[in-house]
Amino acid sequence: MRNILVTQHLFENSSYPETREGLDINWSKFLFSCGFFPIPISIKLSPDLYFDKFKPAGILLTGGNDLSRFSPDNSLSKMRDQLEIKIIRLALTHKLPILGVCRGMQILANYFEFPIEALSGHVGKEHSISVDEKTKLGQFLAPDLKVNSYHNYCIKAVKGPFKVSAKCPKDKSIEAFESETYKICALMWHPEREKPFNEAVINLIREFFLGSWLANGF
What we know:
This protein is an alpha/beta fold. The protein has 6 helices and 13 strands. 30% of the residues lie in helices and 29% in strands.
């Protein structure tokens, strides 16, 4: 079983001064279902140590915390941005796959300078998305897929060696993108929160990190 490095949410304890790292417990179960062992990354250790120690099959950038550009006075957002930018650079250097989910998709968009905008009506909602059948995601997911939604910001366009994999038909916001050059896939919804887990998404992620996805397309 291969390791996947996983970033974490940063938050302040409410009852006494303490900064904490957190990860939805469903991520461990979901990644294990995909055939991977999750290794959470701590903000206080250099990501190089994790790359050297655990020899990961890939990187997962998770949700939580707004990007610092949308929350400039939030020191935790800045800390997380800085860490994840280092991780993205390392992953690209090592040619490792990067999966971004929700905020993870946004930090990837921010890194590659895609336009990001505020969006309403996508928090605590379930809605349909349209998946482009000609993309890698389209090889695994149904063209009309219902997903959860927990975000206040959206990506409106991609550029360079990227293509849009899925959109919300109602407002045209991008729900997934993938790279034609880099080993990158990004989803705006949370597969770990689905009950039961979507088997098609499990197969997608398994192939993304280890299988024919890379051999055929990257």
